[in-house]
Amino acid sequence: MKKILYVMHxxxxxxxQRPQFIAEExxxxxxxxxxxxxxxxxxxxxNPSLEAGNLHVKGFRNWPFERFTFVPxxxxxxxxxxxxxxxxxxxxxxxxxxxxxxxxxxxxxxxIDPTKIKVIYDCMDDYSAFPYMDDYPKYKVFKEKNExxxxxxADYVICSAKALQKKLYERYGIDxxxxxxxxAITKNISTYEDQIDGIGLPNNSLVYxxxxxxxxxxxxxxxALDEYPDLHVVxxxxxxxxxxxxxxxxxxxxxxxxxIFWLL
Length: 264
Description:
Blueprint: E1 3-8, H1 18-26, E2 31-37, E3 50-52, E4 55-60, H2 73-76, H3 78-86, E5 96-99, H4 102-108, E6 118-123, H5 137-153, E7 156-159, H6 162-172, E8 179-180, H7 193-196, E9 205-209, H8 218-227, E10 232-238, H9 244-247, H10 252-257, E11 259-263
Parallel strand pairs: 1-2, 1-5, 2-4, 5-6, 6-7, 7-8, 9-10, 10-11
Antiparallel strand pairs: 3-4
């Protein structure tokens, strides 16, 4: 049975999304060891360990040193490399390394023997486009430098959308083979009905399930509600922006037009 080291950048107990679903599917035919970047907020349930058949899940620390803007990012992130080394993971024992973040890959790339181990980069987001990146320009440069390198060296690159593949090509000019694996929901979504029955969705509902943050296009969502009076928009996901709407001048009336169900 093939062994996969699956390194992901979101907490396993955060909202269940692409990395968790893929890891669970891979564990049906492979031995999968998941190591995820633990949340530094210590919220209940975000940082679990798990043993389920071929799936083994553990967290590791990876500190956000990009916030210390007076220190070179590559120098400060050496600490995260030391933290990774302290986990004593035997990288050579794996057939594949599946990584979802180029900065995490940077922490252990020098331990990979390319003649023995295949590297898979799963690019699920355009990381450079997240608003917080504008606050840490040196970190953005650091991340893009490592993303370019992993695009050049990975055996396989997976993108969550064709548009994302296009952005990577435009940014780095690397002409290589990409595999598109779109985001989706699990086939057994019906098993979650007991968790959403209380919402009472009306007809013509447009439902979003995922992290609700400042990058969400609330403005055009309101325009859609104006243009289609029978439309109902429901957002269901973890809260990352409790004060964002009020701080940006949203009236209570506008907030109530969109049903928002915060998790965690």
